[in-house]
Amino acid sequence: MPIYEYQCEKCRHCFELIVFSSDDKKITCPKCNHGRVKRLLSATCFIGTSGGGGCDSHAPKGFS
Ligand SMILES: [Zn+2]
């Protein structure tokens, strides 16, 4: 199963999600519950933060 990275378009929170199909229209931000997120093809949100905002919690947490 592919694990994709998403970034919330509202709060820019980055999160990873296992996507069972190409159906990613129902994904909401786990942080602010915003309904618009964009899928990242790579770890772009980790390196593409050109000042301000950005990803503050990219380290995987809760995986035990
Ligand atoms: Zn959000």
Molecular structure report:
This protein has 64 residues and is mostly beta strands. It has one domain (3-47). It contains one helix and three strands. The chain has one helix spanning 44-47, and strands at residues 3-8, 14-18, 37-40. The longest helix has 4 residues, at 44-47. The structure holds zinc ion. Zinc ion (ZN) binds at residues 8, 10-11, 13, 29, 31-32, 34. Zinc ion binds at residues 8, 10-11, 13, 29, 31-32, 34.
- Using only C-alpha atoms, the radius of gyration works out to 11 Å
Query: What is the assembly state of the chains in this entry?
Result: single chain
* Strand line-up in the sheet with most strands: 2-1-3
Helix/sheet category: mainly beta
Strand tally: 3
Question: Ends: how far apart?
Answer: 18 Å
* Total DSSP helices: 1
SSE series: EEEH
The geometry reads as globular
Question: Can you give me a brief rundown of this structure?
Answer:
This protein has 64 residues and is mainly β.
List the helices and strands and how they pair.
Layout: E1 3-8, E2 14-18, E3 37-40, H1 44-47
Antiparallel strand pairs: 1-2, 1-3
Record keyword descriptors for this entry:
3-stranded antiparallel β-sheet; 3 strands; 6% helix; 23% strand
